[in-house]
Amino acid sequence: MKAQKLKPGDEIRILSPSRSMSIIAKEQRKLSEQRLSEMGLTVTYSKYCEESDAFSSSSIESRIQDLHEAFLDPNVSGILTTIGGYNCNQLLSYIDYDIIASNPKRLCGYSDITALSSAIYAKTGLITYSGPHYSTFGMLHGIEYTTEYFYKMMFQEAPVSVLSSAEWSDDAWYMDQENRTFIQNDGPYVINEGKAEGVIIGANLCTLNLLHGTEFMPSLAGAILFLEDDLESQPPTFDRDLQSLIHQPGFHDVKGIVIGRFQRESQMSGQLLHDIIKSKKELEHLPVVADVNFGHTTPQITIPVGGEATLEAIGGEVKLSITE
């Protein structure tokens, strides 16, 4: 199941199922709203999106009310999360999934939002989206690629061929919008060759692993896994988190793995990632590629969780197409 594509004039609701919008600078919020308005969207805000507690989040009750109201509001076509965090999985057993199934909307966010998007897909079959937050659009420079791929996935009908950006960045852009560091993008690389087609599952690996053994974990059967992690995931952590995913039911029928770009502070290198992948016999028959534009570096593509991907990794060349 998928929601209708967005179109100019549609309303997009901003809510905070993880950390609060109160931590986002006013100037950044103003620019985020401007970016979305330039796409033709009308931006509205949930009642409790700025509520903040000791964890820079808000009560489960407030976040659930905002989520339910966004899906129930017939004027709302899309939902954009404010930012990630750590506690989105608190909400999962309180959600009325019948409300969501009966009122499909395009929900987008990444990082901690992986718990919410994966659970919604697992419980309702509704395609959700791993992509930019509301706060992401507050980036002054280097936002063009992210905006382009968000627009392609959210507004346009054609399959999206994922091409590399010219540059990428891992700087704290929200701290200093003018003095940015951009790095030449060499593009994705192949670890295991092969071809695959499958259903897209995943996004932030350590957050997805929180769902293991629960009713909120999507099936891995027939999946192409899109996996990324942030600076808190060092190589040994990524290794064991990946191994935990490999132990899940249905993994034997996974078709391929697409890995996003690691943050530099994670200390993950191409060689270390190669060694991790090659150490696992369960992955020998799967095409595996890395350094695709998604994750906690910028820019990023928008990925439909529950959509479909076609992957070719032959002769050192990566071809990737995604569609709903």
What are the main properties of this structure?
16 strands; alpha/beta; 25% strand; eight-stranded mixed sheet; 8 helices
Morphology call: globular
The arrangement of helices and strands along the chain is EHEHEHEHEHEEEEEHEHEHEEEE
Q: How much helix, percentage-wise, in residues?
A: 10-25%
The helix tally amounts to: 8
Report the structural category: alpha/beta
Please give the largest β-sheet: 8 strands, mixed
Average pLDDT over all residues:
97
Rg, rounded, reads: 18 Å
Number of strands: 16
Q: State the strand order across the main sheet.
A: 6-16-15-10-11-12-13-9
Secondary structure layout plus pairing:
Layout: E1 11-15, H1 26-38, E2 42-45, H2 60-72, E3 76-81, H3 97-102, E4 106-109, H4 114-124, E5 128-130, H5 144-155, E6 160-161, E7 167-168, E8 183-184, E9 189-192, E10 194-204, H6 205-208, E11 223-228, H7 235-246, E12 256-261, H8 270-278, E13 288-295, E14 303-305, E15 308-314, E16 317-323
Please describe what this structure looks like.
By secondary structure, this protein is an alpha/beta fold. 25% of the residues lie in helices and 25% in strands. The chain has 8 helices and 16 strands. The chain has helices at 26-38, 60-72, 97-102, 114-124, 144-155, 205-208, 235-246, 270-278; strands at 11-15, 42-45, 76-81, 106-109, 128-130, 160-161, 167-168, 183-184, 189-192, 194-204, 223-228, 256-261, 288-295, 303-305, 308-314, 317-323. The chain has an 8-stranded mixed β-sheet with strand order 6-16-15-10-11-12-13-9. Strand 15 (308-314) and strand 16 form a beta hairpin. The longest helix is centred in the N-terminal third of the chain and has 13 residues, at 26-38. The radius of gyration is 18 Å and the shape is globular. The N and C termini lie close together (9 Å). The model has no long low-confidence stretch (mean pLDDT 97).
